């Protein structure tokens, strides 16, 4: 029987293109973009409902993430049906990333010669780094 761990692992195989552009590829779960996993047993397999997010309002990856998540999860053994929802909160924060990915990202940035803080400085926006930005 498939569980949440297997679902999250499968979704982590879907790589966020912005992480690739940053030079340190990460899957949806490591990026903190898998908001919810719900499993319900059916007579012929498991019904999987997942909610995925994007990092900011206006990100064009919502539909591609949802489509790829549906395709990926539908192919898992024991999955009878899949429902993929998009999170409409747009409240992603760098602290949503897995600790292991944050560590990998810090190491990658050090090697590149610069460290960009993952935790926003007080009074700054977590996305822009500009004081007073929201």
UniProtKB/TrEMBL annotation:
PANTHER family: FE-S PROTEIN MATURATION AUXILIARY FACTOR YITW
UniProt-recorded name of the protein: Putative metal-sulfur cluster biosynthetic enzyme
Domain of life per record: Bacteria
Taxonomic placement: Bacteria, Pseudomonadati, Pseudomonadota, Betaproteobacteria, Burkholderiales
Domain MIP18 family-like: 4-84
Transmembrane segments annotated in the record for this chain: none
Gene3D superfamilies associated with the record: Fe-S cluster assembly (FSCA)
Coiled coil: none
């Amino acid at each position: 029987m498939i569980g949440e761990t297997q679902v999250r692992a499968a979704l982590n195989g879907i790589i966020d293109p912005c992480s690739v552009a940053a030079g340190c590829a990460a899957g949806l779960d490591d990026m903190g973009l898998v908001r919810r996993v719900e499993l319900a047993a059916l007579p012929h397999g498991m019904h999987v409902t997942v909610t995925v997010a994007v990092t900011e309002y206006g990100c064009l990856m919502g539909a591609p993430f949802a489509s790829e998540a549906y395709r990926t999860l539908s192919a898992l053994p024991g999955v009878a049906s899949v429902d993929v929802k998009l999170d409409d909160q747009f409240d992603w924060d760098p602290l949503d990333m897995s600790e292991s990915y944050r560590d990998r990202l810090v190491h990658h940035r050090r090697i590149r010669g610069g460290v960009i803080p993952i935790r926003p400085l007080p009074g700054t926006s977590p996305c822009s780094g500009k004081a007073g930005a929201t």
